[in-house]
């Protein structure tokens, strides 16, 4: 029970991170009459454009996020990106604030080491073989132990930033330098993983609510340079493989706990399903659910957070998503081609409204439905190809 936004009786949700995923969380929260506050490192972030209020700050600065939270006193603190001062979240939780899904989940998933050690070493879930390295020499040793090719990633990064595949010994140093530049935080540690030649990879959206744990239909996706290009739902899997995937997702999300939606990333291989990583929040590949499900991943996240029941999740139609990415840096640009893109049947376009482009930055997504996944993928790809960015500086 709560009153209207901006009243004394309101229910308040504060987002840490205000990108395209947060924008949808804010919209869903507002549908349920919740007051929303968006925080991110730059002004004009997508979720800020739709929230009741916003703050611009460095989210790795614990004192600064504490100040905002103490002033706002939100009912729910909802992390939307990995790189946040999570020790401050742990303290705030101890002081009685509600961090979604939990401060520990945010802390463990912020760095690849925390979540990988928990999944592989504590829970015994199958993963790619891995090592950690703090120096170039340690990296060389790790590569020797794991063999080539291998995948090198900063422990704190997302959307493939700083990530590369190392194929020869000569490439090790370049991969190291790339990882040093790409990490979000100042921390220099990296993870090296054995390269997995998977048949396909999926995200299993898993929602924990008062109604228990529910799984969405598996979402297949294709990634390029560590970042997602297209996704589709459902990804066809034999029932035993779905069971294996759900078993892994349940183990890791039960361990992390709390209420909210998780995106469990899994590799499907000939030797079984491997755990890759987990987001304790809506997942980029899950944007497809805005077209395919009765309740999108964002609606599910908000319902779970507010403590409302989720008796069922229905897949209404097969569907696909396809991203539009920028290829240079600019603060003056227009996105065109919507006339052609929207002429594709059963297709929608979401422009995120980011104020600047950067090389590889995701600016929009196309969502298509069809009677089967293949057709939906074709429609989404066709519409995405029709979209373009015209740079004016
Ligand atoms: N060990 C591996 N073997 C083969 N491919 C891999 C491996 N690790 C990662 N990849 C590929 O790179 C993609 C991105 O990796 P990962 O999910 O770890 O990075 P990320 O930066 O956290 O991405 P995001 O934030 O978008 O989830 C994976 O989805 C997969 O396609
Ligand atoms: N894979 C994680 C992911 O997709 N996160 C989404 O991208 C935004 C950052 O985008 P930006 O780097 O373009 O600002 C985040 O705020 C979140 O919405
Ligand atoms: Mg990932």
UniProtKB/TrEMBL annotation:
Look at the named UniProt entry and state the broad enzyme category this protein falls under: ligase
**Which InterPro entries does the record associate with it?**
ATP-grasp, ATP-grasp_carboxylate-amine, ATP_grasp_subdomain_1, PreATP-grasp_dom_sf, PurT, PurT/PurK_preATP-grasp, PurT_C, Rudment_hybrid_motif
Q: How does it assemble?
A: Homodimer.
| The ATP-grasp domain, residue ranges | 117-306
Q: Which reaction does it catalyse?
A: N(1)-(5-phospho-beta-D-ribosyl)glycinamide + formate + ATP = N(2)-formyl-N(1)-(5-phospho-beta-D-ribosyl)glycinamide + ADP + phosphate + H(+)
Molecular-function GO term, any one: transferase activity
* Pathway per the UniProt entry: Purine metabolism; IMP biosynthesis via de novo pathway; N(2)-formyl-N(1)-(5-phospho-D-ribosyl)glycinamide from N(1)-(5-phospho-D-ribosyl)glycinamide (formate route): step 1/1
Q: For this protein, what is the EC number?
A: 6.3.1.21
Quick one: which residues bind N(1)-(5-phospho-beta-D-ribosyl)glycinamide? 20-21, 80, 284, 354, 361-362
By what name is this protein known? Formate-dependent phosphoribosylglycinamide formyltransferase
Which family does the entry's similarity section mention? Belongs to the PurK/PurT family.
Q: Which residues bind Mg(2+)?
A: 265, 277
